[in-house]
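Quick start: load a record and inspect it. Here is UPF0725 protein At4g11700-like:
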Amino acid sequence: MSTGCAACQYRITFDVKDPRETPLQNFEIQVNEKKYNSLLLTCTMAGPLGEPMNGNRWGGSVSDIKLLSDFLPDLPPVNPFQDDTSDRFYVLKKSEVKKNDWIRLYLELAVATANRTHSRFGVANLKILRVAMETPREHVLPITEGLGAYDAIFYIRYTDSCKARAGDDVDRVAVVRRILDDHTEVFRLVGRTHSIRLLGNGESQKTDVHGSEDIEIPQDNQT
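Running the structure step on this input writes:
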């Protein structure tokens, strides 16, 4: 995530573990930040560290910015955290949120990219309350099912105690969409944050949602 005044491109190295193999493997990816002050990210190149990486070296054309913007999800007209919408949304269990720490990463990226002028405050104070998931109905292939769906929208309700960043709207929701195109092998992550008061259907102030307790993410799981 850029802390300067322009969108940037990054090479990131990290260790990965294939469940079928024991040793850790050094991996490298290229992440392209498509627009400053927005969560519009693409990963266009990936591979073992030190080996030639497959993909688009320059991260796509300028028109990809408009394409990514078209993918940006809006708040739904109903509350995704309510059980009566479970035919469309899946509300994650507390254990699922704790186990999948990439959910915390999605939240931090959504908050940090939209608030560059307040980057000095960090994101450690963010507290996840509830998480709901939606899979676009037009995608029915097995690869799009469950938390590993190639195309999925995550609604992350959280609190932000940083007054400089959130003001009095400490109760908020991040809407993040993850898209993995298995044909072009491009990974996209787009999203934005809103005040929870903008959530539709008059349900925004309900806090007692069955099966979706407030979630404390352990510090060592935070990114």
